[in-house]
Backbone:
């Protein structure tokens, strides 16, 4: 099934907006419309389109200001600007600043479609030069999300996968760094070759070198035969080095040499072996601090950190909690052969407000324990509470939230409650009147977050 590409149209002229919407809908695109740049920013808080087409001259924030905001916050999202007052110097300047396309009204529909397809081909390429469809998204099937920041990271994953650059994944323990490493592998041309993992913190130092590079017979006591290391086992594919920050300094030197020279030397051997392996590494540590303290080599850091991706914590993507909880519920209900249909409202509220220091891994464990112990079709508040071992379960009060994070906080609440202001205000510990004032202060329209059928996706 072909997955429609979403285009966000931004224009304060309703007639032109309607005309362009009709044309692009007929061309097979899913259209979201916004009648101002401010409304467009609201749309981007809710979901990510594949492309933005904006008028230049609008009341309030103009098209260029909108582009600059998008380029700063979502640099992978292409923007095409339409203007009635374009000149060649304007077009050159716009392209130099990063705008994908710049067309003067009245624009040629074919030219616009060509630019749209070109932009989508660059951002949604599946490796064959054609715009991807639903069948090409199997690489990301294990990553369950409706969070806009996560979608941005997945866009970067698809781009990174096209080449062979080393990738360093950052994030707290339990956020799913290995899932992202697998996604990069499965989206790449190496997908049919091995994906090999090793946790550098779990292997004793004296064995780690042999595990990575292999050894020859007689290299040390107990080496009764030649042993291939993980670099050789991953030949042609991907090697994932988890918790790279825990690798001993001596091995860091040998790993750096292997990455620079693309050869390894098994323990006890005098011969080198050429390798063709992509390396993805991950850490929950602050590697720059480790460099300053002398625990991690700076040259290795930059060899590993050609591309860096930071995976957000579960607390930063709370709108994903119901999705993940229900996914784990189905998985474990099937595993343990239990007839469980869902969660009680109180249990869901507890899950939504939990601190989740262990992130997605902790959530999975909580759901598994709840399923195992449940004797009813619904998971109760008590089961979830007990499974969480009475950890801190409340969001910080709204007064404690830093001012600069107010808008993100409000957006998350609206997503969690699907635009239910009463419930959102209750979660934020504010009365409705104050909450409405906060929404107005940040120009957030709660009606956009309500779950309803929209014939045109109007924002």
Residues:
């Amino acid at each position: 099934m072909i997955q429609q590409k979403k285009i966000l149209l931004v224009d304060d002229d309703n007639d032109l907006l309607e005309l362009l919407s009709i044309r692009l809908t007929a061309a097979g695109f899913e259209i979201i419309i916004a009648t101002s740049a401010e409304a467009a920013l609201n749309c981007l808080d809710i979901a990510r389109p594949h492309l933005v087409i904006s008028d230049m001259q609008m009341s309030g924030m103009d098209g260029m200001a909108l582009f600059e905001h998008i380029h700063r916050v979502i640099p992978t999202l292409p923007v095409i600007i339409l203007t009635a007052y374009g000149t060649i110097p304007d077009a050159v300047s716009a392209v130099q600043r990063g705008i994908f396309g710049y067309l003067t009204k009245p624009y040629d529909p074919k030219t616009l479609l060509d630019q749209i397809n070109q932009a989508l081909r660059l951002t949604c390429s599946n490796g064959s030069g054609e715009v991807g469809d639903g069948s090409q998204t199997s690489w990301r099937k294990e990553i369950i999300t409706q969070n806009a920041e996560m979608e941005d990271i997945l866009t970067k994953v698809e781009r990174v996968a096209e080449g062979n650059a080393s990738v360093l994944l950052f994030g707290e323990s339990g956020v799913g760094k290995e899932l992202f490493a697998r996604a990069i592998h499965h989206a790449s041309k190496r997908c049919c070759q091995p994906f090999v993992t090793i946790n550098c913190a779990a292997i004793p130092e004296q064995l780690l070198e042999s595990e990575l590079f292999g050894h020859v017979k007689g290299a040390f006591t107990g080496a009764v035969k030649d042993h291939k290391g993980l670099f050789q086992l991953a030949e042609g594919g991907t090697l994932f080095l988890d918790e790279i920050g825990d690798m001993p300094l001596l091995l860091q030197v040998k790993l750096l040499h292997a990455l620079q020279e693309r050869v390894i030397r098994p323990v006890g051997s005098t011969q080198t072996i050429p390798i063709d392996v992509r390396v993805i590494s991950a850490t929950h540590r602050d590697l720059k601090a480790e460099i300053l303290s002398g625990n991690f080599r700076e040259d290795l850091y930059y060899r590993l950190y050609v591309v860096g991706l930071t995976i957000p914590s579960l607390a930063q993507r709370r709108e994903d909690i119901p999705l993940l909880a229900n996914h784990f519920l189905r998985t474990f209900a099937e595993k343990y052969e239990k007839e469980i249909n869902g969660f009680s409202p109180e249990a869901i509220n507890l899950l939504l407000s939990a601190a989740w220091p262990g992130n997605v891994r902790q959530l999975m464990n909580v759901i598994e324990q709840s399923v195992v112990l449940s004797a009813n079709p619904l998971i109760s508040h008590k089961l979830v509470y007990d499974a969480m071992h009475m950890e801190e379960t409340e969001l910080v009060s709204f007064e404690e939230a830093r001012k600069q994070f107010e808008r993100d906080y409000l957006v998350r609440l609206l997503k969690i409650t699907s635009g239910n202001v009463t419930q959102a205000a209750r979660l934020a510990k504010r009365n409705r009147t104050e909450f409405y004032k906060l929404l107005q202060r940040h120009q957030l329209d709660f009606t956009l977050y309500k779950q309803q059928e929209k014939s045109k996706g109007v924002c």
